[in-house]
């Protein structure tokens, strides 16, 4: 029996006047009370100073001055389950502590890292890094008006619709019906569509760069980790805004960054909204240095936006080939009423003395039954027990076919997922491509038909492919040029009825459509030209275009800090390549929608794209 200290009776009596601010029923809201103490809430302190108990135990007189020992009071509130005479106040809790306080009780303990409040805007691709673009990712200007401009809605160009009739022009878009594919920086694309899709996305799955040194984050080690964390933080924060209240996000990661990502996601989505760390065991493994074990698994962190609102119910499969085979093999018995049933063992796997009992003289299992005598008698009365032909054999339970829902798909997926080595789905793991079966399980677990799926690290379009085959709506975002070489052609094949991946399992016959569009490049176009330049002469050509513009591109936005007179071409190719990248204003990578009616910008946009933008952002004019 626990006896709470007198302080709690005193505090409850004093705090009733605050209503439910500090009380949950008859219990103190300890964390809320401690927050107010730390903030020196005047109304709270005035009430506490009236208590003789507080005056006696927590106000100390020093040199004629009275000092309120707020830390001691906070400690007494947080750690109430101990006697003053006990040797330890930690007898009921386990956790990290600093200076006598658990870290989870402190509102000041957070994951901090350099540039945490910065913005990573550039492409973060391996191609860019290999070409020397290794120090231009952080948004250099932090002032609010610059960030507002950076995150403002962007102009869309090259918009088109793909369906079973091929490619066609598009001027209208319905977010409640149309699927959307965007080429461009994923952070800026997300901010462009956030108003239209706020709280409308049911499932987010992403497979971001892992920051292992072999992908796009091979920077100076001093900044490597903080750069990656800033990159992820920027994107996860906007992703959360797009989730429905009952929505889920799944982030795939490897062992190098999983722990950091978990803490970061705890801070963004809330620790209470973490559901599972799913272990995905791949076939084979990735090569490691000789002093490390071979990696054969990755992890998928699953969070929900609000665990009290999440929509999660078992999904049963009754008509697929595996279930029908299971039924044919197991439901082979017929009772006196002509009902088919299968026998299900009711023997306990673990010895429990209260489950060792005799029932009608039949042999008691070695470790007893898995149910109590009362349950056994209930099943017996309902005709749900299958008695053997010998007293030396065990009783079984009848599972009737006419009551059988099928295999519970969700509950069969534990937090360890193993790729079936007998699967006919071929997956190129060296390129990072994930099997359709994995994405199918994720989407199926937490969404229904017609709900919206988002993947803003689209890659080869596996997520969008599966979503289309499962009759979900989707959004995909990808910056790399292979979106037009791999991703879009793959989705065209899906529309045509391709039979790879999960097609046969879901009886995919083709159909569907999606709208493709691109963020209109401004400085991004010049940035890519600089990155892909191979010689000093090519750099000079790009530099002249940056100053003068072309028929299809306006002059570049140059950073106001730049002193163009200081450019010295004798410095050589690498130095000047790096310098030109620094000259570009990273807040102007793409044209903002607010510029669409500017005469100099309007002439660069087709009439179809102009109408598409107006309808997309304003619902038509």
TrEMBL record:
Location of the Type III restriction/modification enzyme methylation subunit domain: 41-96
Keywords attached to this entry: Methyltransferase, Restriction system, Transferase
Gene Ontology terms, MF aspect: DNA binding; N-methyltransferase activity
Domain DNA methylase N-4/N-6: start-end pairs: 201-483
Any one of the GO BP annotations: methylation
SUPFAM superfamilies: S-adenosyl-L-methionine-dependent methyltransferases
Pfam (any one): TypeIII_RM_meth
Family: Belongs to the N(4)/N(6)-methyltransferase family.
Protein name as catalogued: Adenine specific DNA methylase Mod
Species this protein is from: Lactococcus lactis subsp. cremoris
